[in-house]
Write a structure and sequence with these properties.
Number of helices: 24
CATH class of the largest domain: Alpha Beta
Mean pLDDT: 87
Strand order of the largest sheet: 1-8-3-6
Largest sheet: 4 strands, antiparallel
Number of strands: 21
Distance between the termini: 65 Å
Structural class: alpha+beta
CATH architecture of the largest domain: 2-Layer Sandwich
Radius of gyration: 29 Å
Low-confidence stretches: 139-143
C-alpha cells in the first residue's frame, strides 16, 4: 500500500466509527475515498460535488448552520458529516479554515454498514452514545469485582438463631457451622447480629453467664444491604459504619451474609481494613504509618477496573475515618467538648470524590451555646486535627479553608451570617468560598447543626436568581481545554508544559455545573453524581443531556485515575496533569466529545442566567 494510503488507513483506525472495522475492510477503505481540499470560505458541502457522500474531516474546520442561519455544529479533525446520505438538506455550512476532507460515496457507505454490524452500530451512535461506551469499564483491564451485586457474593445461606435462645447456644451454633457471626431473629424479623467479637467482649470479658439470652449481647437492628446493591456500596457501607458483617436481603427477606473476608478474598486491598486499622491507632505517628498505604490502595482499585466514582468515595471514607480518629484523640487529650459541634468536610472529601494527597477543606460549626471561654478548646481541637491530617499525607489548604483558621471555626449563628452574606452579596471571594463551603458534609459530632444550616441555605439560593447568575458567571471561568475547532488547549509553564489539567479544566467544570443545579433547585446532595441525578429527576436537567454529562464525568475521572496510577507506578506523586501523548487516538476523540458536551451545557446555563444577571 502506498504511503499516502497507509496514512489514511491509520487515521481512520484512530477515529470512530472506523476503529471497529476488521483489518480487511480497513485495508480496502482508503482506496474508496476521494480526497478534497477546500479553501477557507468555501460553501459546504461544495457546490461542485458530483455525488452524495459522507464527509470525513481530516484537518481544518467547518461551521454548519440551520436553515434559519443559527449555528448547528462545528466540525473539527475526525468529525463526520453524513447529511447528504441521510437526505438532510436543512443544514449547510462553510469552511472557516483551509480544510482537507475524505469523501466516501453514500452507496459505498451503505455497503460498508452492511458488511460490518459493529461499524453500523457505531456509525448510528451519536456522540453521547460513544461517550457512554467510553465511560464503561474497560475490558481486559481487570475484573471490577465491586460492580457485582451483593447477592452474587453471599457465600452461604444465612445462619440464624432465635432471640430467646442462649449465648451458649449461639456459640455452639457458630462453632458447628464454622461461621464468625450469627443472625438473631424474632419470627420473620431480623432483630440483631452476634459476632465472635461480641462473644469475647460482651460476654466473656464482662463475666456474663453463657446461659443469658442471646439478645443481651447482640447488636440490635444491624446495618443491612439489599441483594441488588453493588459490592462497591457494600464496601463503602462497611467502611463508613466500621462493620465487618452485612446481612443481605432479597425482597426484604434474609438471604445470606456478606463479610469483609468475602470481599478481601476477591478484592485484595480493602478500604475497610485501612479504616479498621485507623480506628485502632493510638497516635498520629501510627496513623501516618497506616496512611502510607493509601496510594497503593488507590493503585490497586484502579488496576481492578473499579469505577472512579467508587474510588473517590472509598478514599473519602478512609479520610472520614482518619478525621474521626483524630477528633477522638484530640478529645481524649482536651476532654469532652464543652458544647455540641459538628466537624464538616468540604471540597472533594465533602463530595466524596477524593484521591490521595488531596488538600484539606473543612470547617467547625459549633452550637450557639458557645462561650468565649470555650473558644480556645475548639481552636486547639482544630489545630490538632489539621496538623494530624497534614502528617498523614493530606496537605494544608493553600487558601486556609480549614477549621484551624478561626474564621471557619464559628458558632452556627455566625455561619448563617456567612452564607447569607455570600448569597445576598456574591462578590468574587464569596463565590470562591461557595466552591468549598456549599459542599459541606458532616463527619463527626452533631449532624443536625449542619443540616439546619443547609436547609436554610438551600431555601435562600433557590429563591435568588441573581446569586445563581453570579455563581454561573464564576463557574464559566473554568472552561474545558478545547479550542474553537476542537483542538486541545494545553498548559504552558515549565513544570506542566504541554499537558491537560484534568481536574481544573475537566472535572471542575462538571462539579460547578452540578452545584449550580443543586443550589437553584434546592437539592441537598453534595456529591456531583447525586446532584446531577437529582437534577434529572426534577426535570431541571434533560435526561439525555444529564446522562451524557454523567458519562463525561466518569470518563474524565477514569483518565485521571489511570494517569495517577502511572504516576504511582513510576514512583512519582500523583497529579492531575495529563500528557496528551499518553492517550490513544480514540481516547483523544472521546475526551474531545466530553469537553464539547461540557461547553454546550455551559453555554445553555450562560444563556439562561446571564441575561437577567443583575435584575
Amino acid at each position: 500500500m502506498e504511503v499516502e494510503l497507509l496514512e489514511i488507513r491509520d487515521f481512520l483506525a484512530d477515529h470512530a466509527p472506523f476503529d471497529v472495522l476488521s483489518p480487511d475492510l480497513l485495508e480496502v477503505l482508503p482506496h474508496q475515498l476521494v480526497v478534497r481540499y477546500l479553501r477557507r470560505g468555501t460553501a459546504f458541502p461544495p457546490a461542485d460535488a458530483t455525488a452524495p457522500a459522507l464527509y470525513i474531516l481530516r484537518s481544518g474546520a467547518v461551521e454548519l448552520r440551520n436553515s434559519d442561519g443559527t449555528l448547528s455544529d462545528k466540525l473539527g479533525e475526525g468529525d463526520l458529516y453524513a447529511g447528504l446520505c441521510e437526505a438532510d438538506s436543512s443544514v449547510s455550512g462553510v469552511t472557516v479554515e483551509d480544510s482537507l476532507l475524505y469523501l466516501l460515496d453514500c452507496r459505498a457507505l451503505a455497503s460498508l454498514r452492511e458488511a460490518s454490524a459493529a461499524f453500523d452500530r457505531q456509525f448510528a451512535a451519536d456522540r453521547a452514545e460513544r461517550l457512554r461506551r467510553a465511560a464503561a469499564p474497560r475490558p481486559g483491564a481487570g475484573i471490577d469485582v465491586l460492580s457485582l451485586k451483593a447477592a452474587d457474593l453471599r457465600h452461604r445461606e444465612p445462619v440464624t438463631l432465635d432471640a430467646d435462645m442462649t449465648i451458649r447456644q449461639a456459640a455452639q451454633l457458630m462453632s458447628a457451622q464454622r461461621v464468625s457471626s450469627v443472625l438473631v431473629t424474632e419470627g420473620e424479623r431480623l432483630a440483631g447480629l452476634i459476632t465472635d467479637s461480641d462473644l469475647r467482649h460482651r460476654c466473656l470479658a464482662r463475666g456474663l453467664s453463657p446461659d443469658s439470652p442471646a439478645r443481651s449481647i447482640m447488636t440490635p437492628d444491624p446495618v443491612t444491604i439489599d441483594g441488588d446493591e453493588l459490592l462497591a456500596e457494600a464496601l463503602l457501607c462497611m467502611t463508613r459504619m466500621q462493620v465487618h458483617h452485612l446481612p443481605v436481603l432479597i425482597q426484604g427477606r434474609l438471604a445470606g451474609m456478606l463479610t469483609l473476608s468475602d470481599l478481601a478474598r476477591h478484592q485484595g486491598s480493602s478500604p475497610v481494613l485501612l479504616a479498621t486499622d485507623i480506628q485502632r491507632a493510638d497516635g498520629i505517628e501510627a496513623l501516618a504509618q497506616i496512611c502510607r498505604r493509601l496510594p497503593e490502595l488507590q493503585l490497586q482499585l484502579g488496576l481492578a477496573n473499579t469505577r472512579p466514582s467508587y474510588i473517590g468515595a472509598a478514599i473519602a471514607s478512609i479520610t472520614d475515618a482518619l478525621t474521626r480518629r483524630l477528633l477522638e484523640l484530640a478529645e481524649s487529650r482536651l476532654g469532652p467538648a464543652p458544647v455540641p459541634y459538628v466537624w464538616a468536610a468540604g471540597g472533594s472529601q465533602g463530595r466524596q470524590e477524593q484521591t490521595v494527597h488531596s488538600d484539606q477543606d473543612h470547617a467547625l460549626i459549633i452550637s450557639d451555646d458557645l462561650r468565649d471561654t470555650d473558644r480556645e478548646y475548639f481552636a486547639e481541637l482544630a489545630r490538632f486535627v489539621s496538623d494530624g491530617l497534614n502528617a498523614c499525607g493530606f496537605p494544608y489548604c493553600p487558601g486556609n479553608a480549614m477549621a484551624s483558621n478561626p474564621q471557619w471555626c464559628q458558632p452556627l449563628q455566625v455561619w448563617h451570617g456567612y452564607f447569607n452574606d455570600w448569597i445576598e452579596r456574591p462578590q468574587p471571594k464569596a463565590l470562591m468560598h461557595a466552591s468549598i463551603f456549599f459542599d459541606l458534609r458532616a463527619i463527626h459530632g452533631e449532624p443536625v447543626l449542619l443540616q439546619s444550616l443547609q436547609e436554610q441555605v438551600l431555601a435562600r439560593t433557590r429563591a435568588n436568581r441573581i446569586f445563581i447568575a453570579h455563581l454561573t458567571a464564576a463557574a464559566l471561568q473554568h472552561r474545558p481545554p478545547l479550542g474553537f475547532f476542537r483542538n486541545f488547549v494545553f498548559i504552558h509553564d515549565g513544570e506542566h508544559d504541554a499537558t491537560l489539567d484534568l481536574k481544573r479544566r475537566g472535572l471542575l467544570p462538571i462539579v460547578d455545573l452540578a452545584r449550580i443545579y443543586a443550589l437553584s433547585e434546592g437539592i441537598d446532595a453534595v456529591n456531583t453524581r447525586e446532584r446531577l441525578e437529582a437534577a434529572i429527576a426534577t426535570g431541571a436537567l434533560g435526561i439525555d443531556l444529564g446522562s451524557s454529562l454523567l458519562d463525561a464525568l466518569e470518563f474524565i475521572a477514569g483518565l485521571r485515575i489511570r494517569h495517577q496510577a502511572r504516576c504511582l507506578r513510576e514512583g512519582h506523586s500523583p497529579d492531575n496533569y495529563l500528557p496528551p501523548d499518553t492517550l490513544s487516538g480514540l481516547e483523544r476523540n472521546h475526551l474531545k466529545d466530553a469537553f464539547r458536551l461540557i461547553q454546550s451545557l455551559q453555554a445553555t446555563l450562560e444563556n439562561r442566567y446571564q441575561a437577567g444577571r443583575f435584575s
